[in-house]
Amino acid sequence: MGKRLRGAKSICCCASPRFTSSSSSLSSFSWHEEDVWTEIAKYLDGKSLVMLASTSKWFLNVVMDESVWKFACLRDLQVPDCSETAFKWVKLYASAFGGGHSYAFRQKEKHIDWMRIGAFCFDSRDAFLMENLTCPSKLPKEDTMQNMLNSYGSCVLHNIKTGIWIADLQLVRCPVCDLNTCDGEKVLATNMGLKFENQQRKEATKLLCCNSFLNYRLYFLAGTMQVLDARHLELFLTEGYQKGNWEYKLVGSHDIRKHVDSASGGIFDIKYLKASSTAELFNLKSWVGKPNDWQPKAMVTYHAVAINTNLQENEGLHIKYHVMTSGDTGEIVSIRISQQLL
User: Fold this and answer.
1) The Cα angle at residue 199 between residues 197 and 201, in degrees rounded to 5
2) Using an 8 Å Cβ cutoff, are 339 and 255 in contact?
3) For residue 48, how many other CB atoms are within 10 A of its CB?
4) Lowest CB count within 10 Å: 18, 37, 232, 233, which one?
5) Cβ atoms of residues 118 and 305 within 8 Å
6) pTM of this prediction?
7) Which of 19-33, 71-85, 183-197, 269-283 is predicted least confidently?
8) Sign of the dihedral through C-alpha 126, 129, 132, 138
């Protein structure tokens, strides 16, 4: 997957709990020095921390200290400590690294495969979404989001929930879309020179698509959707999301009715759109791959994420923008940019 830029701002080490004792001083080193083991625990990954905690109640108490899991979470996500959280860090770590993704909660039957891109931060409450990965000279100022998309292929979102966000690249079956002409199974069989009917064709399609991202060139031709899926770190832990009360809403769509060399998209914190840490995302030659490289590529920085997939000859793209808002504050907690060949 893509690389992460190393900025000047580094992860701050979390303060360890101090050892307390009724004695005024320790006469000799103690293997049960809590402060020492707290520091050691910070060098372990999540699985190792759980294993250490299972050895004794004493180690369980040490490992479950908030500073340990906060440090592990920020370290493994490779982001700075950019906001306060409403949940314990051990739960946030499990949510981030438990192997879950947004389609695991809903539309499981339509999901094909996914890849974790990485994590980034929203310091401001405004996001800039774009599909051409060309740094704009100025931000669009149309009266509606749809007009922004039609005129510039980009748009601005407000009231973003600040903090740490996680980005994934999803591959989704074409029935998710609302294009009446979509028939991925038929197109796939045709591309492969196969002539199957009904159930035979469906079974053949399933077999051919069993290794989705290795056959990504074939998949994207077959009418499936590529989705840049970003969410706030806390989303999976919120009650409204778990109960299914929060849904994705379409905020705009856009068609490019001509050949495009690639399907790309990006999500940026507007505050850092022109920052040096974001500039590498716009240097496409450094990360998108050669024209005949059909594997999807992605790059994430501290305040932005972008994807790119090179395409064969085509008639254009259908692009949709979805957001999910929290039921209590109305803040945007998830963003999706989906792309499908016309």
Assistant:
1) 55
2) no
3) 13
4) 18
5) yes
6) 0.78
7) 183-197
8) negative
